[in-house]
């Protein structure tokens, strides 16, 4: 039997993921596309962080009175992914700045128009 | 010997350390010398590694001495060693070639960044190849992708910027899909080690989570290797990047993407054969065949020759994926041998275009009229490379197509054999278009006579093309290696 809503946080992950993906596809503005990409990536961070959580578990530090610990590995992994995400965002925005210098616009359709005229 | 034990990790560390060094040095000549030196060291290491693997089997290296399922391990078997040789070979030939081509096409004060990025890109690609850890693969994937975006945007054509931006969006989506897949696998098995995953997955293969993971990882990597219909980033990226970047990417990046897909399908999911049980195979075969035809058909109508060769790459990726999807030793070895063969052929052809752009500052077909007489070596190399792309006997292109056709016959896929032959004939059309303009059309009146490209560019170009012929005539060595790698992979299925 499938419980509804089940683990609510996974629903949140899916909603965020699809919202981000939709922004990337539907928005013509280059900066907004990057925002969408960020939302998409953050949903994956959330997915990883959620899977490491053990209910009732605490931070994995040995101490008296605690014997249930959350799994720290996914959290560490996602720390790496966050760094990658920051690098991607900054590089993407830097490219947008350069595109704006060259084309005078950051709207996808106007850039395409200039390119097809050339 | 102490260094001997650490060769695998040195393969990654040396270019990784050389990249920031380039930024400190700044002088374009010294950075170029450093990059060339490093790329030759990498080639020497990879050749040593493949000899070690041939002599004594897989090499395993535990990073920091942590044992495998917990620590990250680098593992080199026949397949990795083969891909390492391809990447480092191309790297070692491209860097000497890069000097003049990059000086011409990239701003002088940004040349040191170019070499730094080239080294980082090589680091990422080599890292994807040697790592035995699924998450570590993602990190290297991003290292190579991020440096690739920078490389593509470095040219003087502003369309390179938008091409890089579009690739950044699509490439990041692909890499993110890949880590979703890795995350789902970790949820189900609690492991990230590729060899360990391969052992753990058969027990849980019926779960929806594992099947979804396979789907996410496959789609993510297919974006990276530009399988139709996920290829939209590739033609513009190749056409508007500086020529030498195109050479490097066309000859290595998609090949490493194919390698990663092979790892996922045949090692991680090797024990369960999800291609068969989920019937993904039919979809992949269909996409590969459409790629073969769509790529060649669109290539015929291109006026920019770099773009034409980019579309032709899409078709060639179709052949590689077709070989994989056959799921037989013959099929997989055909596609593995094609990795090397296509790297040499397409690398050589893009080098020709680099020479052309160096002299005439254009890659348009109309501007190339009459170049056959003015640049005989360069255009001769184009014809030779073109023959290999078509798959004429004595070329490497023939070796891999022959292997692919035999694999299809073994499966009894007669229509596929016919389709392979027909799509190869389409290559004749687009190569001939260029040959006709270059040799039989007179150069326009009053245009300056162009000299042959400088020797420093001609020699690497001829090395690529000669390799393509050497291994076309003597295809046994390469077929043996690919065959052994394929047997090890398919053996994992049983």
Provide key terms for this protein:
heterodimer, A: 118 residues, 0% strand, B: mainly alpha, 2 domains, two-stranded antiparallel sheet, 21 helices
Give your account of this protein's structure.
The complex is a heterodimer of chains A (118) and B (494). With 118 residues, chain A is mostly helical. Chain A has a domain at 30-57 and 68-117. Chain A has four helices and no strands. In chain A, helix 1 (8-26) runs antiparallel to helix 2 and helix 2 (30-52) runs antiparallel to helix 3. The longest helix of chain A is centred in the last third of the chain and has 31 residues, at 73-103. The model of chain A has no long low-confidence stretch (mean pLDDT 88). Chain B has helices at 2-5, 7-25, 28-56, 78-105, 111-130, 134-152, 159-189, 194-204, 208-225, 234-240, 243-268, 274-277, 280-300, 305-325, 329-360, 371-374, 376-390, 396-411, 414-440, 455-473, 476-491, and strands at 59-62, 73-76. Chain B is globular, with a radius of gyration of 21 Å. The mean pLDDT of chain B is 90. Chain A binds chain B through residues 21, 24, 30, 33-34, 37, 40-41, 44, 47-48, 51, 73-74, 77, 80-81, 84, 87-88, 91-92, 95-96, 98-99, 102-103, 111, 115, 118, and chain B through 135, 138-139, 142, 146, 149-150, 153, 158-159, 161-162, 164-165, 168-169, 172-173, 175-176, 179-180, 183, 186-187, 192.
Number of domains of chain B: 2
Count of extended strands of chain B: 2
**Oligomeric composition of the shown chains:** heterodimer
Classify the beta-strand content of chain A into a percent band. Answer: under 5%
Question: Rg of chain A, please?
Answer: 20 Å
Strand content of chain B: under 5%
Mean pLDDT over all positions of chain B = 90
**Count of extended strands of chain A:** 0
Helix percent band of chain B: over 70%
* Euclidean distance between termini CA atoms of chain A: 60 Å
